[in-house]
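Supplementary notes for students who missed Thursday's class. We covered one full example, reproduced here. Read the sequence, then the structure, then the short commentary at the end.
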Amino acid sequence: MDISLILKVGGVGFLVSVIYQILSKSGREEQALFVSISGMILVLLMLIGQLGELIASVRQVFGI
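Structure (token representation):
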């Protein structure tokens, strides 16, 4: 796993948390919820490739 992926996930998490706090303090809880959900989806899309490699490695180790 590459360190850049960890930094990207951390950056997305930081930005989402800042935007969530700003929207929540201004009384826009629904939009804050949408921002947090979209951040989670974005991170999951970034991790799909790595998860595929992990599953392939597990299959190779156990001979499945």
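Commentary. The chain has two helices and no strands. The two ends are 23 Å apart (CA to CA). If anything here is unclear, bring it to office hours.
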